[in-house]
Design brief:
Layout lengths: L1 E5 L3 H12 L3 E5 L3 H10 L16 E4 L10 E4 L3 H18 L8 E4 L4 E2 L4 E2 H9 L4 E5 L4 H5 L4 E7 L2 H11 L4 E6 L2 H23 L4 H22 L9 H12 L4 H10 L4 H6 L7 H15 L4 H11 L4 H9 L9
Helix pairs in contact: 3-4, 7-8, 7-9, 7-10, 7-12, 7-13, 8-9, 12-13, 13-14
């Protein structure tokens, strides 16, 4: 199968490598020409995924969107804030080259984020900008460094109709990369995006020097916030207890590989958000998602105390210790999910 992967960060590169190893003909698109030259020269993405060899016999790298035309499947792994503009550019490139006889391709979002201005999911952006109803999302506990090294990984591929996800499921699966399907596209994307906010919260707690009890509480009550928001938006409650919810939440909140948890930990140790972001080469999506979450919670009068506390710490310079203390001293109530 001809597959295009847009975004040569760690996640896009890891998926391009996996698909090339699977036997597909893969074209990896990068915005940066110097990065493309370095990958070709070194046989690896030393900037984002060092130490992982790439099969350049079946994986080509380009900065040209036109060279991606003709693929049957497009995987898109760019930051949430860059997705809409890239989708528009891709649409123009595809419209120039697409033949009337060719079957329409499928598109899979690999980005776990939300658009700040509209609280729009990544699949909704792709559907609107590409004019396609064959849009899916891949979610679940899946750190790029582990996927790239063939560590066992299990994810969920979600589409509005189960048939859509099933068509692409086999193309992605390997002996070490298991793919389940789901028809709850909204739930899978909300779980993948909002768990990053909870991971920042657990990182803040760790940075303050608190222990496993606090982390466990934040994860479990964070799950309650995911369920609360998901049900309000029309997602299936069950989705948040699966790979795209609880599975990804636990991994992101506990792993040293988690960029969102790392951001929170540095904040908890007294660094400002600006200091933390300036020292990162990759994007921590929770930093942007929490702004959209705060706007939605206010508009719909949703009780999302952990998300609200993270927003106040990141964007209103609130004291991490004071916000955690406020969470502990909220009005007593019955535990509910």
């Amino acid at each position: 199968m001809e597959i295009a992967v847009l975004g040569a960060g760690s996640w896009g590169t890891a998926m391009a490598r996996l698909l090339a190893t699977r036997g597909h003909r893969v074209r990896l698109w990068a915005r940066d020409a110097e990065l493309v030259q370095a990958i070709v020269a070194q046989g690896q993405n030393g900037k984002y995924l060092p130490g992982v060899s790439l099969r350049l016999d079946s994986l080509s790298v380009t900065t040209s969107l036109a060279e991606l035309c003709g693929a049957q499947l497009y995987l898109i792994a760019v930051p949430s804030f860059a997705l809409r503009e890239l989708a528009r550019r891709l649409k123009r490139a595809l419209d120039k080259e697409r033949s009337a006889e060719a079957a329409p391709p499928s598109f899979i979002s690999l980005t776990k984020g939300l658009e700040y201005e509209s609280f729009t999911t990544m699949s909704e952006i792709l559907q609107a900008e590409l004019g396609s109803d064959k849009v899916l999302a891949l979610s679940g506990p899946s750190f790029a460094a582990e996927v790239a090294r063939d560590f066992p990984t299990t994810v969920v591929l979600a589409g509005r109709e189960l048939k859509q996800a099933t068509e692409s499921q086999k193309a992605l699966m390997t002996e070490r990369f298991r793919v389940y399907t789901s028809d709850d596209l909204l739930g899978a994307e909300l779980g993948g995006a909002l768990k990053n906010v909870i991971a920042i919260a657990t990182g803040i707690s760790d940075g303050l020097g608190f222990g496993d009890n606090a982390r466990g509480a934040l994860i479990s009550r964070g799950l309650a916030e995911l369920v609360r928001l998901g049900r309000r938006r029309g997602a299936h409650k069950e989705t948040f207890f699966g790979l795209a919810g609880l599975g990804d939440l636990v991994a992101t909140c506990t792993s040293r590989r988690s960029r969102n948890r790392q951001v929170g930990e540095q904040i908890g140790r007294g660094h400002t958000l600006e200091e933390v972001i300036s020292g990162m080469t990759m994007v921590a999506e929770g930093v942007y998602t929490v702004r959209a979450l705060e706007r939605l919670a206010q508009a719909e009068r949703l009780d999302l105390p952990i998300g609200h506390a993270v927003y106040q710490v990141l964007y209103q310079r609130a004291s991490p210790l004071e916000k955690l203390t406020e969470l502990m001293n909220r009005e007593p109530k019955r535990e509910e999910l």
